[in-house]
Amino acid sequence: MERRPQELVDELRRAIAQTPDSAEQQALFAKLAVLEVQLGELARRQLAVQEADLQLAEANKALLGWRVVIGILMAALVGLAGWLIASIWQAL
């Protein structure tokens, strides 16, 4: 079972707190604080990526709509060209 990063940070904090007070404990707490800052930054970046993914999905929907419209217009243009050629051919 995969644990969330914040759960791991909390577990590390409890484990460090149970060790005897020492310079090593203070150094571990300092490293843990750096990890917490980095974890927060990663969470913010993940939210930004999710937002960008949503915007990309919306853009893809719009692009698909325009492709359909262009396809319909091209089919109409080909039909019109065929009609024009047939009309000219009959006139001759």
Structural class assignment: mainly alpha
SS field, number of helical segments:
2
**Strand element count:** 0
Please give the domain count: 1
Taking the sheet with the most strands, its summary is: none
Characterize the structure shown.
By secondary structure, the chain is an all-alpha fold. It has helices at 5-18, 23-91. It starts with a helix and ends with a helix. The model has no long low-confidence stretch (mean pLDDT 90).
List the helices and strands and how they pair.
Elements: H1 5-18, H2 23-91
Helix pairs in contact: 1-2
Q: Which features does this protein show?
A:
92 residues; mainly alpha; 2 helices; 90% helix; 0% strand; rod-shaped
Summarize the structure.
The protein has 92 residues and is an all-alpha fold. 90% of the residues lie in helices and 0% in strands.
